[in-house]
Specification:
The protein contains three helices and six strands; from the N terminus they run ββαβαββαβ. Strand 5, helix 3 and strand 6 form a beta-alpha-beta unit. Helix 1 packs across helix 3. The protein is elongated, with a radius of gyration of 27 Å.
Length: 164
Protein backbone atom coordinates (compact mmCIF):
# COMPACT_ATOMS: atom_id res chain seq x y z
CA UNK A 1 0.00 0.00 0.00
CA UNK A 2 1.34 3.43 -0.83
CA UNK A 3 0.54 6.95 0.33
CA UNK A 4 0.84 10.07 -1.76
CA UNK A 5 2.65 12.86 0.11
CA UNK A 6 2.12 16.51 -0.60
CA UNK A 7 5.38 16.61 -2.51
CA UNK A 8 4.08 14.09 -5.02
CA UNK A 9 6.40 11.29 -4.01
CA UNK A 10 5.20 7.95 -2.80
CA UNK A 11 6.31 5.97 0.22
CA UNK A 12 5.35 2.61 1.57
CA UNK A 13 3.19 2.79 4.69
CA UNK A 14 4.22 0.89 7.72
CA UNK A 15 2.30 -2.37 7.92
CA UNK A 16 2.07 -3.86 11.37
CA UNK A 17 2.89 -7.52 11.33
CA UNK A 18 1.49 -9.77 13.98
CA UNK A 19 2.83 -13.17 14.86
CA UNK A 20 0.35 -15.63 16.33
CA UNK A 21 1.00 -16.52 19.93
CA UNK A 22 1.70 -20.25 19.89
CA UNK A 23 1.53 -20.52 23.66
CA UNK A 24 -2.29 -20.23 23.64
CA UNK A 25 -2.93 -22.94 21.06
CA UNK A 26 -5.01 -25.88 22.17
CA UNK A 27 -3.31 -28.46 19.99
CA UNK A 28 -2.56 -29.50 16.43
CA UNK A 29 -6.26 -29.28 15.41
CA UNK A 30 -6.37 -25.47 15.63
CA UNK A 31 -7.06 -23.89 12.26
CA UNK A 32 -6.05 -20.52 10.92
CA UNK A 33 -7.84 -18.34 8.45
CA UNK A 34 -11.30 -17.51 9.72
CA UNK A 35 -13.33 -20.45 10.88
CA UNK A 36 -13.90 -24.05 9.99
CA UNK A 37 -12.84 -25.13 6.50
CA UNK A 38 -16.38 -26.20 5.62
CA UNK A 39 -17.64 -22.62 6.06
CA UNK A 40 -15.03 -20.98 3.83
CA UNK A 41 -16.25 -20.13 0.34
CA UNK A 42 -19.49 -20.50 -1.57
CA UNK A 43 -21.19 -23.35 -3.34
CA UNK A 44 -23.46 -22.58 -6.26
CA UNK A 45 -25.77 -25.12 -7.83
CA UNK A 46 -26.89 -24.70 -11.44
CA UNK A 47 -30.54 -24.94 -12.41
CA UNK A 48 -29.71 -27.93 -14.63
CA UNK A 49 -28.34 -29.90 -11.69
CA UNK A 50 -31.56 -29.47 -9.72
CA UNK A 51 -33.58 -30.29 -12.85
CA UNK A 52 -31.71 -33.58 -13.33
CA UNK A 53 -32.19 -34.61 -9.71
CA UNK A 54 -35.89 -33.74 -9.83
CA UNK A 55 -36.39 -35.47 -13.19
CA UNK A 56 -34.82 -38.71 -11.99
CA UNK A 57 -36.74 -38.61 -8.70
CA UNK A 58 -40.06 -38.02 -10.50
CA UNK A 59 -39.47 -40.89 -12.95
CA UNK A 60 -38.89 -43.26 -10.01
CA UNK A 61 -42.52 -42.88 -8.88
CA UNK A 62 -44.89 -45.69 -9.80
CA UNK A 63 -47.57 -44.38 -12.15
CA UNK A 64 -45.38 -41.82 -13.94
CA UNK A 65 -45.12 -42.97 -17.55
CA UNK A 66 -42.90 -40.18 -18.88
CA UNK A 67 -42.11 -36.51 -18.48
CA UNK A 68 -42.87 -33.50 -20.68
CA UNK A 69 -45.56 -32.36 -23.05
CA UNK A 70 -46.34 -34.10 -26.33
CA UNK A 71 -44.21 -31.69 -28.35
CA UNK A 72 -41.18 -31.95 -26.08
CA UNK A 73 -41.50 -35.76 -26.06
CA UNK A 74 -41.60 -35.79 -29.88
CA UNK A 75 -38.47 -33.65 -30.18
CA UNK A 76 -36.84 -35.70 -27.44
CA UNK A 77 -37.59 -38.97 -29.23
CA UNK A 78 -35.96 -37.62 -32.40
CA UNK A 79 -32.93 -36.38 -30.44
CA UNK A 80 -32.62 -39.74 -28.65
CA UNK A 81 -32.37 -41.57 -32.00
CA UNK A 82 -29.58 -39.36 -33.31
CA UNK A 83 -26.20 -41.05 -32.94
CA UNK A 84 -24.48 -39.61 -29.91
CA UNK A 85 -27.74 -38.24 -28.56
CA UNK A 86 -28.78 -39.12 -25.05
CA UNK A 87 -32.03 -39.26 -23.16
CA UNK A 88 -32.81 -35.97 -21.52
CA UNK A 89 -33.58 -36.47 -17.85
CA UNK A 90 -34.53 -32.81 -17.61
CA UNK A 91 -37.40 -33.08 -20.11
CA UNK A 92 -40.56 -31.79 -18.42
CA UNK A 93 -38.67 -30.17 -15.53
CA UNK A 94 -38.04 -26.47 -14.91
CA UNK A 95 -36.17 -25.25 -11.83
CA UNK A 96 -35.61 -21.79 -10.42
CA UNK A 97 -32.66 -21.92 -8.05
CA UNK A 98 -31.83 -19.18 -5.57
CA UNK A 99 -29.18 -18.91 -2.85
CA UNK A 100 -30.94 -21.23 -0.39
CA UNK A 101 -34.26 -22.15 -2.00
CA UNK A 102 -35.59 -23.66 -5.21
CA UNK A 103 -38.97 -23.97 -6.90
CA UNK A 104 -39.81 -26.65 -9.45
CA UNK A 105 -42.35 -27.09 -12.24
CA UNK A 106 -42.88 -30.64 -13.53
CA UNK A 107 -44.92 -31.84 -16.48
CA UNK A 108 -45.78 -35.53 -16.35
CA UNK A 109 -47.71 -38.21 -18.20
CA UNK A 110 -49.41 -40.75 -15.93
CA UNK A 111 -50.36 -44.35 -16.57
CA UNK A 112 -54.06 -45.04 -17.12
CA UNK A 113 -55.84 -46.35 -14.02
CA UNK A 114 -53.68 -44.72 -11.35
CA UNK A 115 -54.90 -42.04 -8.98
CA UNK A 116 -53.51 -38.78 -10.33
CA UNK A 117 -53.67 -37.09 -6.92
CA UNK A 118 -51.74 -39.99 -5.33
CA UNK A 119 -49.12 -39.96 -8.08
CA UNK A 120 -48.75 -36.17 -7.77
CA UNK A 121 -48.34 -36.45 -3.98
CA UNK A 122 -45.75 -39.22 -4.35
CA UNK A 123 -43.86 -37.25 -7.00
CA UNK A 124 -43.76 -34.19 -4.73
CA UNK A 125 -42.52 -36.22 -1.77
CA UNK A 126 -39.84 -38.00 -3.81
CA UNK A 127 -38.64 -34.85 -5.57
CA UNK A 128 -38.50 -32.76 -2.39
CA UNK A 129 -36.62 -35.48 -0.50
CA UNK A 130 -34.08 -36.04 -3.31
CA UNK A 131 -33.41 -32.36 -4.05
CA UNK A 132 -33.12 -31.33 -0.40
CA UNK A 133 -30.91 -34.31 0.48
CA UNK A 134 -28.54 -33.87 -2.46
CA UNK A 135 -28.34 -30.07 -2.66
CA UNK A 136 -29.19 -28.76 0.79
CA UNK A 137 -31.60 -26.30 -0.85
CA UNK A 138 -35.06 -25.80 0.60
CA UNK A 139 -37.72 -26.78 -1.93
CA UNK A 140 -40.47 -24.19 -1.53
CA UNK A 141 -42.85 -25.64 -4.11
CA UNK A 142 -43.26 -28.40 -6.66
CA UNK A 143 -45.93 -27.58 -9.22
CA UNK A 144 -47.12 -30.57 -11.24
CA UNK A 145 -48.97 -30.40 -14.54
CA UNK A 146 -50.39 -33.68 -15.84
CA UNK A 147 -50.31 -33.27 -19.61
CA UNK A 148 -51.51 -36.72 -20.71
CA UNK A 149 -52.60 -40.20 -19.70
CA UNK A 150 -50.86 -43.23 -21.23
CA UNK A 151 -53.56 -45.66 -22.36
CA UNK A 152 -52.76 -49.38 -22.37
CA UNK A 153 -53.41 -49.81 -26.09
CA UNK A 154 -51.24 -46.88 -27.21
CA UNK A 155 -47.95 -47.69 -28.92
CA UNK A 156 -44.78 -46.80 -27.12
CA UNK A 157 -43.43 -43.49 -28.40
CA UNK A 158 -40.00 -44.09 -26.97
CA UNK A 159 -39.38 -47.72 -27.75
CA UNK A 160 -35.91 -48.89 -26.87
CA UNK A 161 -34.03 -51.30 -29.05
CA UNK A 162 -31.96 -53.92 -27.31
CA UNK A 163 -28.94 -55.55 -28.84
CA UNK A 164 -28.34 -59.19 -28.02
Amino acid sequence: MTDMTEGGSTRATDIEKTVPDTSTRKGPGTRRGGGEPATRGRTTIADGVVEKIAGLAARDVLGVHTMGSGLSRTFGAVRDRVPGGSKSVTRGVKAEVGEVQTALDLEIVVEYGVSISDVARDVRENVVAAVERMTGLEVVEVNIAVSDVKLPEEEEEESETRLQ
